[in-house]
Amino acid sequence: SMMAEINRDVVVVGAGAAGLTAANDLRKAGVSVAVLESRDRVGGRLWTDVIGGTMLELGGQWVSPDQDALIDTVAELGLETFSRYREGESVYIGPGGSLTRFTGDIFPVAPETEKVMVDLIDRLDVMVAQMDPDRPWEHPDAGALDRVSFEAWLRQQTDDEEAADNIALFIAGAMLTKPPHAFSALQALLMAASAGSFTNLVDADFILDKRVVGGLQQVPLLLAERLGDDVFLGQPVRSLEWGAHGVTAVSDGVTVHARAAVLAVPPVLYSRISFVPALPRLQHQMHQHLSMGFVIKVHAVYDRPFWREQGLSGTAFSPYEISHEAYDNTNHGDERGTLVGFVSDRHADDLFRLSATERKERILESLSHYYGEEAKSPVVYYESDWGTEEWTRGAYAASFDLGGLHRYGADLRTAVGPIHFACSDLAGAGYQHVDGAIRMGHLVASQIVEQVRS
Ligand code: FDA
Predict the structure, then answer these.
(1) Residue 31 among known ligand-binding residues
(2) Residue pLDDT, tens place only, 345-376
(3) Closest approach atom of ligand 1 to CA 67
(4) pTM reported for the whole predicted model
(5) Strand ranges for 45-202 from DSSP E
(6) Are residues 37 and 15 in contact, defined by beta-carbon separation less than 8 angstroms?
(7) Is the CB of 340 under 6 A from ligand 1?
(8) pLDDT, tens digit, 9 for 90 and up, residues 189-220
(9) Beta strands of 205-263 (E only): which ranges?
């Protein structure tokens, strides 16, 4: 067999944005690295592919203006950005199936419902302002807020179902991609705090502001290029021996002896690795309380962006549609028009019980409710299904079950001996986003450099 055995200062497990950021920082500090990646490509949840002649971003793609860590990396790599198309009117479909066009952030609902929504957003903004996204468990009401689901919390605030459904949507379907009964009000506040405020989440032009020309996967691709031969593809790490001496990481073809390890994989995959000795009981327990959300990202490409001719921006929302949100996702300089829609949690489960043909019909039917009959006839149709990806197992990222954040959050990022943890799923600012992955990469690299030098 071709088993290579090498020595480095640090072994990085996972060539996503987090692992590659850490590896580059370490290299710059004069610390040698090897990156072991299970897939035959780098980028993890960032993946650009050409399907039916059109470039599609199958994973993460948008950049928002407060994501400094990502913005700095994009600039440093010499990449260019462009704005999401947003001219014209957005559409909202209410509980009875009626469509209304609107501009601005607040959905066009009855005046009483609008008042409830605005009050809830204000109240959530105040609570979020009391939270340090790096220490959500220190919020003055953390214990109580982590015991109640976000859905139950909303029902305690108002009897207006449409208002509650809409506010739930911004965190549940649109971000954590779990039903709002499946995570706590504290976890919801963390999601908002990690993006600066609840108001920011409501503002699609903020959250989904810019894209990278040529696709966001270029960030990990260019970071990996700088590391050259120190990135090993097709090398799932199977075991990690660790102790006072350091670590030995064993993948299918490479064994790396190092002083420290960066585990830069989603936390739901930690248990795929045999730790010798086993991780401590706290980690064994804590990691079981984190799980991936689930969303289908649907790409529909047309010969032209026909909705623009009707004065529509392409931005569409409804908590009552199987595609709860959709946008104009036309590529930079492309004549074709692309729509992207999202189908979250229970809807995604239900649709994956159907045949591919039926699923496509149901999803395009939903898009046609927003954009009209023409939406039913794309020239290219594709569903990103991260649930089938062995090395991801869901989308967008992981969150705690009820009570888990308050119980375990403070220990989540703590290193275990020479093993350091970095992933977007562990971030404060930029949580669940590429920005958070990069922040976590910088953080563990600086911790390791300090240790190596002391
Ligand atoms: P990531 O999961 O990317 O990397 C982990 C790497 O470890 C993977 O390459 C994996 O193959 C590897 N690995 C796993 N186990 C291993 C093992 N045992 N041995 C070796 N390697 C192993 N974010 C955003 O900012 N804007 C957006 O618009 C979106 N939209 C979006 C859409 C969709 C469909 C998805 C799936 C995700 C997003 N996101 C997003 C989220 C964003 O993509 C995500 O948070 C980061 O890319 C995660 O980067 P990490 O490096 O933390 O993990």
Answers:
(1) no
(2) 999 999 999 999 999 999 999 999 999 999 99
(3) 25
(4) 0.98
(5) 48-51, 54-57, 81-83, 89-93, 99-102
(6) yes
(7) no
(8) 999 999 999 999 999 999 999 999 999 999 99
(9) 210-212, 231-232, 237-243, 246-251, 254-258, 260-263
